[in-house]
Amino acid sequence: MEALAQPLAAYTALAALGVVVFGALLTATRLRAGWTPYRTWLVMLPIIFGALWLGIWAWALLVTILSIYGFKEFARATGLYRERLFVLVVYAAMVAANLAGYFGRFGLFMVVPVWTVGALTLVPIIRNRTEGMLQGFALSVVGIVYFGWFLAHLTYLAIWTGGLGLVLYIVLATQLNDVIAFLFGKLLGRRHWTVLSPNKTVEGSLGALAFSIAFAFVNWPLAFPELPWWGALGLGVIVGAGGQIGDLTLANFKRNVGIKDFGNLLPGHGGVLDRLNSLTLVAPVALHFVRFFFDGFP
Prior knowledge:
Layout: H1 2-29, H2 35-54, H3 56-78, H4 84-102, H5 106-120, H6 122-127, H7 133-159, H8 163-188, H9 202-223, H10 229-257, H11 272-276, H12 279-294
Helix pairs in contact: 1-2, 1-8, 2-3, 3-4, 3-7, 4-5, 4-7, 5-7, 7-8, 7-12, 8-9, 8-10, 8-12, 9-10, 10-12
């Protein structure tokens, strides 16, 4: 337990220091647009660290709640929320995925999407309907896989020996990657490169990628000392590139349904999904990268 607490104490202190540094940076650069999301982070960080300090059960509960609320935002934006039976099946699967992750049942964890898709096929039969059922089925599959099962990897990661350091690194580095991309884009950005997110610039994206790789090596001794240098490099690329791909994926979803944000729960960020957009992709890719190449953390 002491070994698990060490990275948590260190990252808690680093997060507090980061809040002070970025507050000073916003003041120095006079980026007024950054103050609203900054103040929201002052609320979100204590929730994240509070759950981790309480224990893995609290972390699993937080991940489950965020998954359910994020999917609710997605369901409302796409119209799926009117099909309550589809939604209830996805909610149940999210709970099941995090329970399997919490108890370390990897086989069960991996088949949750399979059983859920099987359950979803019963919904049109039970409803005795065809109208809108294909769309409802497809959106529900996206919900359980992308917003439920993908995010539940954060729960499974946390139960590994030494995994808590990796969880802390993934969560904080992914969010910091977004911040760096924003700052580089505002201060140095000149060339816009994607219609999925018109404000993104080449300079912001490359700056965030370079920072994420450097940040991975800085965190290497604390978060994942068991890995070789190329493992740290891989995690840096996963966060730096995967985080931006996850962001663009959710941007694509929003543009397809004609909305700017999935919600307004988090001032300066939008909804829960607008904040989790990078983590949804980074969490599973990081877990399976470490598990496949290094067999987890023995």
